Amino acid sequence: MQIDQNTVVSIHYTLTNSEGNVMDSSVGQEPLAYLHGASNIIPGLENALTGKAAGDTLAVTVDPEQGYGEVREEMIQAVERSNFAGVDEIEVGMQFMAQTPWGEQPVTVVGIEGDSVTLDGNHPLAGQTLKFDVEVVEVRSATEEEVTAGSPQ
């Protein structure tokens, strides 16, 4: 069976950045299962997998536009430390959920200067070219429940 709309696909993958550093991998773990066509994975990877079958392997390079997007400067802003009531210590790299004009989303502390804390709401992989080495493990038709839920069950 080939990967197409409304198929449940299981893959093993290794994700590296443009410098070759491993960012994530499913190797040695359960494969990643997703519902093809339901935006469960980034568009560039999903498009490359269309038409593949169990046993296929592929190397995919995904530009930011088809990955996590470009870095959006408007999603980086400084806020007062007083916005972190109940948090005793704030350090660069910490993540929080924040209410933003785009809804609730995770933000990462990228800078601290005096009473000002700079937060970045971009995805940590925004602006990066990503390289995936993928092995298709299994492809099957999705159940009606999975299609309704938008993900494998």
From TrEMBL:
It is found in: Cytoplasm. GO terms for biological process: protein refolding. Residues 6-70 form the PPIase FKBP-type domain. Keywords: Chaperone, Cytoplasm, Isomerase, Rotamase. InterPro entries: PPIase_dom_sf, PPIase_FKBP_dom. Its EC number is 5.2.1.8. GO terms for cellular component: cytoplasm. It catalyses: [protein]-peptidylproline (omega=180) = [protein]-peptidylproline (omega=0). It comes from the Bacteria. Signal peptide: none annotated. It holds the Pfam family FKBP_C. Belongs to the FKBP-type PPIase family. Also involved in hydrogenase metallocenter assembly, probably by participating in the nickel insertion step. This function in hydrogenase biosynthesis requires chaperone activity and the presence of the metal-binding domain, but not PPIase activity. This is Peptidyl-prolyl cis-trans isomerase. The lineage of its organism: Bacteria, Pseudomonadati, Pseudomonadota, Gammaproteobacteria, Oceanospirillales.
